[in-house]
Each structure stands twice: as structure tokens, then as C-alpha cells.
Batch of 2 targets.
Target 1
Amino acid sequence: MQKKKLLLSALPVAACVAALGAGAPAAHAAGSGGTSYQANLAAVSPNAPAGAVSGQLMLTLNGNQATVTEHVSGLAATLPTDKKTLTALGIPVAFAGAPFPHVQHIHINGQDSCPTASADTNGDGVISTVEGQPAYGMIGTTLSVKGSTGASAATDVTVAPSGANFTYKRTFTMNQTTMTAIKNNKAVIVVHGLNPANAPKASLTTANSLGVTLPGATKKLALIGTAPTLCGKLVASQMNTMPSGGVQTGGGSTSGTQDLGLYYGAGALLLGAGAVFEIRRRYAKQH
Ligand SMILES: [Cu+2]
């Protein structure tokens, strides 16, 4: 099967903008060779079924040098290939079959927690990026694979890790605001982008909460492109190294991206309830 590269110039997928937060005093642990923190990433329910996605992140701070090592699994692997499906989801046809980009951030100065079902304030069955912000806060740092790690890169899918399972490792200079938040216990890791196979149906039929329209798309991107799927609070750790081996090094790498060639087929895609079921069924069949 042909592997397609992501050729999506500067396409904002998830924008996690604006949220307010206040600093709070808290503790942090010190260790030799830097201060380490970790986050166990779990499904944001109901955006993803409990246990369907998981991850682990380790962050070490040496001065303002942050080293992040992260493993995730179970995320959406690739974007659909069928034109009608893409169009219905607000995804340009140029994206067909590309690895599903998962923008990810260190959110800061919220309520230091991951959103629960009660965060779904409009009751559509999906926790949007905006709905989750009271819990996890605003973007402090973008965990991009290269280039800027600032909030300005928050929605740049061209520098987001992608695929169902990936290992991310990067050392970068962290901004002071994020460092302060981390030391104050005010940081939460969030990975975005839902799996069409198991996402709530409203995420396929509802436009994203931020009004993002991708260049070349005829409608706003569906919620699956932007909603949070994995989340975990960053907490002080006594450990200074990731417990597992085999971590790829060098400027943010992704691995395990599968080329599953989603094939939704024609028809079915007017996105009524039946069509949603059809998307899921077909997607699931190929995974
Ligand atoms: Cu985010």
C-alpha cells in the first residue's frame, strides 16, 4: 500500500486558545540531573472509550532545557481516503490517507485536571477543546516535533506527531510561563484528535468548537480533528529516566504509524445517524 506523506501546508487543526488561570503555590521534587515530572495519559471520556487510548509522558527540566519523552497508543491512525468522507468531515481531499495528526500541548493554569463528562456543557456527547479548558487550562507549550514549541505552533499539524502509536522525544528551551506552571503543579498534558472508529457520533457531524476551517475544505473541520483524546496531569516524579527502552531520539520522532488505507467506499456519507454508523463500521473493519 502506498504511504502518503502529510503535505498539508500550515493547516490549523486544533486550536486550543484562550483560557484563564491563576498561579497557585505547590510543591516540586528535585532529583539529580534535573527535576522530573511525569503524566499518565488516559482517555478523555466520552471522546475516547476508557482504555482505548493510553500514554505516558516524562519531562525533565534542567534549567530551561526541557526533555520530553512520550509514548502513546490507540489513537486515530490515518485520515480517511474517501472523498465524501473527507468532505463531510471538513478535511481537504489533499489529506486523504495521511497519518492522522495529533497536536499536543502542555496546558497550564486551569484546574489542574482532565475534563470529565460534566465538561460537556452543551450536552452533545463530545468534550470540545473549549469545553475542556476550564479543567486543563490554556496552552503553555506545544509539543511539536520541530520548530516552535510556543502557543503559536499550537495548531500547526505539519509539526504535530501523527499516527495511532508514536514515540515522541524532544529537548527544547521551555518558556518561563510553562516552567513556572509546572513547578506550581499547574500543568496538564493534552493530545488532540479523535478516532473516527470510536469517537462520539457528534464529533463526526458537528463543526469544531473553534471555528477552524482548513484551507481547501468546504466546511468547518469536524470535532474529531480538534477535540482532546488523551489527558494527564503532570506531577513531580522521583524517576529521572523513562522506564522503557527503545526510545527513538532526535528531534521528535514518530513511529508505528500504520498505513491502513481507510476505505469508506462511496455512498453512506450524508452523515445522518446511519452514515455515522457506517463510518464507524467500515473504519472498525479495517483496524
Ligand atoms: Cu491542547
Note: Residues 38 and 58 are 4 Å apart (CA to CA).
Target 2
Amino acid sequence: MSLNEVTLNLPNYPMEELSKIRQRLISQNKKVFDFGTGDPKIPTWAPIREAVAQSVTPISQYPATRGGPDLIESIWGYCNRNFGIKSGQGFDIMATNGSKEAIFHIALCLVGRAGGKKIIAYPDPGYPVYRSSALYAGGIPYPMHLKAENDFQMEPWTLPEEVQKNIAALWINYPHNPTGAILKKGHLEKIIEWCEKRDVVLLADDCYIDIYNPAWDKEGKKPLTPITYTSKNVYSFMSLSKRSGMTGYRSGFLIGDSRYMGLVGTARANMGVGTPTMLQKAAAIAWADDRHVAERRQIFAKRIELAIPYLQKLGMIEHKPEATFYLWCKVPKGMDDVAFCLRLAEEGVITSPSQWLSEGMKGSMRFALVPEDPDTVEAMEIVTRLVKNL
Ligand SMILES: Cc1ncc(COP(=O)(O)O)c(C=O)c1O
């Protein structure tokens, strides 16, 4: 069979590697503390679950590709409450099946055989689909290596002129997986200005926008997203996965420049990605409520507070995250990150080394704070013992 070059050269999806290690440990009857994949096991808010059950109809029909009226109205409500954006202000919205497929499919609308600029630039370390989607679309992926020294901010204006000229789209992802970094106001403004000047489409992967330090709620503060600044050439990818603990439901939305959303919708209708109607009902309930999300923020913040002191004592924390449920750490001095994470995995603590989350970044690792509080503490004690005995 003849497979194309992109498929033949795909690296193993790193999370699959992790799940193999996990399975091996389980088959050896070892207790596993799985900080590998960012998929917390907190029960989904009951009204969301009930909505799915109540929405199953005797007759099944194709769902509305762009989202039915109840869902779209609920999403506008969310955007209005959280970002002050209303329908008719230059934005349009469209339901997606979570953000992963939408991230993948947007590349097909932006670069490819039909000409135009070829590069899609994206943060590294970061979500692997930015790269694979650019490749499958026939574009050129361009990883931008983020540095702890400048708080993991993207600085596209520092790229070589030849690269800047050929960038069709720029991904940003703040709050950032894996570092937990947030976007600084001055940086966001500079990024928007740069995109305007260079005619670059700004793509904001905002799936962690609601997962931040709960103290910010009292201060009326939220992580920044470009859609609060402009609709022009900007698209934001939102998701219920992390916000509402709905990774298995596959539901999110795309909001952005209404001038092109119609075309993106027409393209997506060819890709066949309408959200099933019963899930649209559940999603409408989820976007209409912010309280269950505030409760999730408290849970993650508590886990960060539990884990951080152990890692700080070991000198592994450079930045205390204020958002996401990830802890980005330095591995102990002199150790390779893959070797350290594999060693830790043998003790039952599964984490992700930076080399699996990036294109060549070494020396760091990520804890996804998925295990419950007592298990988080037990695992941190295992990490402490291991590092002290190295
Ligand atoms: C940065 C980032 N973007 C996108 C996704 C995809 O999320 P979903 O498709 O569940 O919305 C993830 C999932 O972990 C992620 O970490």
C-alpha cells in the first residue's frame, strides 16, 4: 500500500507511548499515579450528563454542522459573560467536536497546494497537532521555541525576515500546555499588531482559558485572549474538555472573524464534523453555567498547592503556574528528561518528558495534575525519595 510521506514519517503520538508504560505497570500489579495525559477524572456536572440522556430521540437525523440555535445562543451567552463579546460585533461562531479536530482542519483552509504563504508557526513545547496539521495540509510547520527567561511568551517579530514574510498563520496557546504560562498584555498587543502588519491569521488555542488561579475571580481577572481585542483575522478555539470535564463528549466552538467564518463553515461541511445533537444539548447546558467551572478551578488550585512544595524543595520548579493543571519542572541536574521520567515510571509515577512534548527541548518534564489529592501527595513522596537517592 502506498502511504504518503507525512503518514510514513509521523512520530508515535507521545500519549500512546505513555499508555503502553502504564499498561505494563498495571499488568505487573503496580500502583500507578498517572500524571501523563491531561485528562482529569472529576465527575462531569450532573445536569450535563442528564441532558445527553434526555436528548436521545427515537429518530436520528444529521446534526447541524455549525451548531443548532440552542447551542449557539448558549455560546454567545458565555462569550458575553466572559469576554464582553456579543453577536454582530464582527464575530461569528461555529460548533466544533472539541478543539483537536478544529485545530487540525483549520490548517486545510489556510495553507496548501493552492498557493499563498506556507508557514504555520506555533509554540514549542506544545500541542503536537499544530505541526501535524500543517504537514497534512501541505504547509511548512515552524516551531517557535519558548523560553523560561521571558516567561514563555511568543515573539514572532524576532524570527528571521524570510520566515516572517512567509507565515500564513500563528498559533498561540495561553494558558499554555505544558508550562502553565499566561499571555502578558503587552505581548498580546504586540502579537496582534505584528499579525496585522504581516497579514497573518492569529489562531488562539484557548482550551485552558477557564482554568486559572481561583483568586483571579475575586479580582475580576481572566487569562487574555485576542478576541477581547479584535475580530480581524483572529480565530479562537474554545473547548468544554478542560473547562467542564467533558473530554469524552468532544465539544467546543470556534469564534472569529465573521468575514471568513462562512467559508470555513463550508469547508468544514466537506470534512463532516457536525456535533451529534444530544451532545449539542449537553454543551448548551455546560456553556450556560460558570459555577461548576469555578469548582473545578478550586480543585486544580488545591492540587497545585499540594504538589508545589515537594518539587520546590527538590529545586525542580522555576515557575509556579497560575493557570492550567500542569506543573512544568526541571529534571534533576545532569539527567536526561526521558531517562528521568522512565525511571520515575518504574516507581509508578507517570509523567511526560519535555522531549515528548516538544521538538528537541531537553531537561524539563510535565506533571498533569490528574490524580486525586491523596494520590498526588503519595506520588510527590515517591518523587522526593527517588530524587534524593539519585
Ligand atoms: C493545548 C491543547 N490544545 C487542544 C487540546 C485538545 O483538546 P480537545 O480536543 O479535547 O478540546 C488539548 C488537549 O489536551 C491541548 O492540551
Note: The longest strand covers residues 91-96.
